[in-house]
């Protein structure tokens, strides 16, 4: 005969009904204690939470809750080409912040390339890091009434826009170089996009005849090749302003390969304020609030999903002077 100490069948996982029974409250009161949809006294809520802890019940299933509300529980984010999306530290910092905010709200994040239609049900979409002026999925999302948040992108109707003050930051960087005596300045640009135009416009507030290199991707090797071809063609400048820190790192590498001192022979500056621990010189750069940008995008998504009105956001930036810029060399 089996001892009564042995369990002969599968152990049933605890449910919210078990928690309610253990706490001595109704099922609806236990549900409200977790969801916060209706007020529950502090004492009652603590009793419910204590009962849940004693039973090992970790809380409502967010997927089931979303399905009951007619939602998928998933937010899409268009990140350009997936093969290159994770090579840009600025993009990664923003994605981390978005993911943390959505995870805390019980929502999943789906990474999507920006060259495909949206083929899965989504509660909202963030369009970011792509640089395109048009997107084939936009009309589809509008037709489906899917909330859309655009980060540093086109001013599409119906979308909430999260941006940074590109122009002010670029102009501050240009004034820094002008104060150092630089007059022959070139810029390595990104592909045509809203950030590219605004950053170049800020630079031209000080240097109206700036020489344009590129466009180039935000990639070390691509930037190195672009500036190398420019130097090979006989061009010269005392300072090169890049539209990303990764580009600037590529220009530093290429300058040193050619025997140029940075910043003695050429000053090099970037944009973003990312951490590049492998580069042995601290870049002069425009620092943007990458984490706050991601959190602002996620908060806008959550508000749009709940049907709330959202305002566009423009976040400030600031200049950080490093060792990659110095006085213009004497002719």
Automatic annotation (TrEMBL):
Keyword set includes DNA-binding: yes
Q: Give the UniProt keywords, A-Z.
A: DNA-binding, Transcription, Transcription regulation
Superkingdom per UniProt? Bacteria
Database matches in Pfam families: LacI, Peripla_BP_3
The HTH lacI-type domain covers: 14-69
Repeat is among the record's keywords:
no
PANTHER family recorded for this chain? Answer: LACI-RELATED TRANSCRIPTIONAL REPRESSOR (PTHR30146), TRANSCRIPTIONAL REGULATORY PROTEIN (PTHR30146:SF138)
Name assigned to this protein: LacI family transcriptional regulator
Q: Which organism is it from?
A: Nocardioides flavus (ex Wang et al. 2016)
């Amino acid at each position: 005969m089996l001892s009564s100490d042995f369990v002969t069948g599968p152990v049933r996982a605890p449910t919210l009904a078990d928690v309610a029974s253990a706490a001595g409250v109704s099922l609806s009161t236990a549900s409200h204690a977790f969801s916060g949809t209706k007020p529950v006294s502090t004492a009652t809520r603590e009793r419910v939470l204590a009962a849940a802890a004693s039973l090992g019940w970790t809380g409502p299933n967010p997927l089931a809750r979303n399905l009951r509300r007619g939602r998928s529980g998933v937010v899409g984010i268009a990140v350009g080409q997936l093969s290159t999306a994770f090579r840009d530290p600025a993009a990664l910092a923003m994605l981390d912040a978005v993911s943390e905010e959505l995870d805390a709200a019980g929502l999943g994040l789906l990474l999507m390339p920006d060259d495909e239609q949206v083929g899965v049900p989504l509660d909202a979409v963030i369009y970011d890091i792509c640089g395109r002026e048009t997107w084939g999925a936009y009309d589809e999302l509008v037709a489906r009434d899917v909330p859309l948040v655009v980060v540093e992108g086109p001013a599409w109707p119906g979308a909430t826009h999260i941006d940074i003050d590109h122009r002010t930051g670029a102009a501050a960087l240009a004034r820094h170089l002008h104060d150092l005596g630089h007059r022959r300045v070139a810029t390595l640009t990104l592909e045509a996009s809203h950030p590219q135009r605004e950053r170049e416009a800020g630079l031209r507030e000080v240097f109206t005849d700036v020489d344009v290199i590129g466009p180039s991707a935000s990639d070390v090797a691509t930037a190195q090749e672009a500036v190398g071809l420019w130097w090979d063609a006989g061009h010269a400048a005392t300072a090169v302003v890049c539209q990303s820190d990764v580009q600037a790192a590529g220009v530093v590498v290429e300058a040193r390969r050619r025997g140029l001192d940075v910043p003695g022979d050429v000053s090099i500056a970037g944009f973003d304020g990312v951490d590049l621990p492998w580069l042995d010189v601290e870049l002069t750069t425009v620092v943007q609030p990458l984490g706050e940008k991601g959190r602002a995008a996620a908060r806008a998504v959550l508000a749009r999903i709940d049907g709330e009105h959202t305002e566009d956001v423009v976040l400030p930036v600031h200049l950080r002077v490093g060792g990659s810029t110095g006085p213009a060399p004497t002719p």
